[in-house]
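protien #1 (seq + structre)
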Amino acid sequence: MMDEQVIQGIENGNFDLYRTYYPFLSFQELQQIHDKWDTRYPVQNNFEKGQIETAFGKLISKIDHPFTVFEFGFHQGNLAKKLFDKAGGKIKNYVGCDICKSSLDRVNGNLQGRPIELFLLKKQLWRYTDEEYNVRNLDVFISSHTLEHLTTGEIGELLSKIKGIRFLLLELPFDWTLGWEGYVGSHLLKIHPQIFINKLESANYKMLEISSKEVTVNQPITFSFEYAG
């Protein structure tokens, strides 16, 4: 059980504290923290960027049948609403997955009548066996501003879990200069973008598009990949 003062410090927005103690937090403690952040930082509702919508439009042009989507880090469904509108009825099922119960509880009338399945994690996604929860038969895996919360090792475990999904559409912030520490109030992936790409390529994913290759600070980058396995 983590010290309550540490938990409170993280809940209050000390992200360096979060990164320091992350490996020692139980899943239940992580859920508690994310529920608190959901209340304290409503700006999370607007993390989805226009560039992921654009990339999605290009991606679905490659799919000639009704398709399934899994969004890792669904929050309250803002991005899903935009993607349903863009897909023009081609989405036959959309799974919204999140660690945060309070955000899933807010999924509202904007998604009423849509083929949505909400999935509240009870442990990390990669801890589910395929018998418990199988995602490999889905068409598109989407994650916007979520993977930066994970460690490098966890990203590898997640890739092992989702390997075989035809398309991956990912957006997350990187920083080429400061690294992971000293970034109060911001999230960014600890590894260099090229290392991230290499991890996906080693899992037999071919990159279709990257939104930017410029070296800038804390820049969200959108990637799309197709499974070539």
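ok now protien #2
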Amino acid sequence: MTTSTAPLLASLSWLDHDAVAAERSMRLMALFEEKEARDELGVGGIRDAISDQLFPGTSTIQTRLRYFLFIPWLFEKLDARAVTSAKYAGAARNAEAELLEELLAHEQDVGGIIGSRARGHLKRMPSSVYWSGLEAWGIRDYAGSLQQYLQDADERRAGLQSARRGTDSADDHEAHGKAWRSEAIQLRPVSFPQGADMAITPDEAAFLLERWRACHPDSLLTWLALELQDSLSLPHAERIWEHECASRFPRAIGELIVQAQRLDALVRGAALLYNLQLAEMDKRDALEKLYSDALDNWAEGESTLTHGWDLADLWDRVEDKGHGITPKTKAFVEAWLQEVKASRKSIRTSRRARELVYARETNLKGASSSRFLNASARKQWGGAAGLAPMSFRWPTADIYLREWHAGLRRENG
């Protein structure tokens, strides 16, 4: 159980007076364990601006580190075969499907293998999941979208032919039809994709660290890798601010993480009130009691992290970082924080707080999608919306660092 859900689950003790209530309690606890991570109140841009600075190139839908090498290896092979633009999309899908079958054949743990369940029905291929990250880590030199890459195969082939004839003296990889960093391609096993698995090799670990240092020297991803490269094991932390190295993080990173922790705490209060209001509208007494107690606990505990918070520092750190943070988003966060400070323990009954949450959700979604305004939309509410803690992509980065560290240590194994 995570520290973020513990205060919520503690509020269920009032239900445990008989077997029926205990069963109901377990069902409600399950709601809080669900990973419903929809951005119900429109603060995702702030969250992502922080995440990009801490763990650039990552995303919450990425799974395993070696895909950062699999994708260039597959696509460079297609380019070397001179697959035409007309056939490239189909050939790419077939290549990724072949990789999937190889991984399933050679990996005992299929966790994180994209498509392990969907197989041939997979809609989103690994290349689309990792495309942006490949550019962020300086592994992809081609600057266009994945769709453009598929359509530009003929142009890349012409560029390669021109380079071989010596008629193009430019040094730019893309001008020569070379879309991928050569050091990455040189790491490709001769038999790939036959026998492919998820294990990072020492040479791959060294290459990835070089990319992190070159492209994102000030990120927490790079700092942690450098800090941990001589360690025999990696510490475990549910939240990044609980990391045992947190007291030694560089000052700028540490200050950004303080902003992240406060944002997480602040928005959770709004999410609890949102769910409470829905429970009241739906006349779901058990949930109403649950969220009332949870919000009171939040007001007495976690909300205190925000009481001395000056948002000017947050805006300085997240604006103009590649994510749209609208004036309306800023206004909501500022008004919500002001009301939290003013209401303190009475936030649950604050008319102003309820109006803020109501107005934010209805303005974001409109009459057709708002759970407040549309009974059909409210029926889709599972009882716990927008309560997933903000991870700031730490779970993904943690997996990557562990896989990277295992590959690095293999050099001495």
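The mean pLDDT is 89.
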